[in-house]
Every structure is written in structure tokens, then in C-alpha cells.
Amino acid sequence: MDFPSKLIENAVVELSRLPGIGKKTALRLALHLLKAESDTTANLAEALAKMRFDITYCRTCHSISDSEECSICANKLRDHAQVCVVADVRDVIAIENTGQYQGVYHVLGGVISPIEGIGPADLQVDSLVARAGAEDSEIREIILAISPTMEGDTTAFYLSRRLRDFEHVHISTIARGIPMGGELEYADEITLGRSIVERQRQAR
Fold first, then answer.
1. What's the sign of the alpha-carbon dihedral 44, 49, 46, 15?
2. pLDDT band at 3, cuts 50/70/90?
3. Residue 8 and residue 186: Cα distance in Å, rounded?
4. Which of 35, 165, 168, 197 is 20 to 30 A from 133 via CA?
5. Sign of CA dihedral 92, 94, 97, 100
6. What gap in Å lies between CA 93 and CA 201, rounded to an integer?
7. Domain spanning 78-201, CATH architecture
8. pLDDT per residue over 129-162, tens digit each?
9. Rounded to an integer, what distance in angstroms lies between the CA atom of residue 80 and that of residue 110?
10. CATH T-level fold of 6-51
11. What is the pTM of this model?
């Protein structure tokens, strides 16, 4: 693809690095920004820079946050006795959009995947175990809301084994309204919400 400007070419190259954005779409976006008000481009650049450099992770649940504690963990009206364990922050957003869950979360940061070289030590597993086992822990139920893929099931099995000695904590999984091999972020809100409500307790 030939470009009339090296600056346009550089913008297209950077935009096309984004997932799902090809060269043609990147060019369309670049030309749109070129024609837009200068404030539009400046505001976008500032928002992206602030997101990248100023965002942090919640010290408790490891979800993305604007401060040391995310708004969900800081909310006293949430049920802190229920912890929903998810692989990624996108799953937190998906579950929150159902409006069916009022507990708190724990974000693992991925799933166990030997093929990709991701083991338990690469995830926020130890901090989950520490949360469940702390002397002042409020936790009474841990919901394993992990996508029902081979890697997801492996992760859920590993977590259930790590948590089984905490007799005061019930381990449950979301109901299989989510199809095998499916991803939580692509599930419709009704199905995902029903899966949370109709979760199943795990055998120890």
C-alpha cells in the first residue's frame, strides 16, 4: 500500500498493530482523525497515554483501577463474602453488565496453559489462596467463573484443589449455560446472568 505521506504511513502502521484492525481500516481511521477537529485527536492521544501510564491494579482483586483499591472492592454495599474468580478484567465487565451479581471479584490475569508456557505461578493464585485463608477473611463462597475451555477447566480444577482445605469456604462454578469452548465475554447477558445465579457447588 502506497501512502502520500510518511506521517500517514506511520499512523497506519501503529493503528494496524491493534487487534482486529487491518491496513485498510487503519487508513480509514487515520484519515478520519486527520479531518477531525484538532482537539479530537489531541483528546484521544491524551486519553490513551493516561490509560497506559496512569492506570493501576487493585491491590485486593487485581482488576484494573484508578487507585490502589478498585470501586467494587471499596463498595461497602457489595457482598464481600462472595468472591467471583475470573481470568480477565473483560470477564468482570461482562458479569457486571448482567446486573445479577453483587459480590466482589478476583482477577487471575489469565488461565493455565502449558502450551503457552503459563503456569499457576504466572497467575494471581497465591493471592486468592491468601485472601481465602486470612484470619480476618469474610469470604464464604468462591465462584469459579472461568470460560469452559480446556485451559479454563484445568485452571478451575487446580483452584478447587488449592482451596479445598478451607472448610468455611464453599466452592461453586457457574452453571453450564455457557457452551463448552465458549468465552465469557462473548456470552449474551441473559445466559451469563443465569449462569451466575444458577452456579453449582464444587465437590471437595
1. negative
2. confident
3. 34
4. 197
5. negative
6. 23
7. 3-Layer(aba) Sandwich (3.40)
8. 999 999 889 999 999 999 888 899 899 999 999 9
9. 23
10. Helicase, Ruva Protein; domain 3 (1.10.8)
11. 0.77
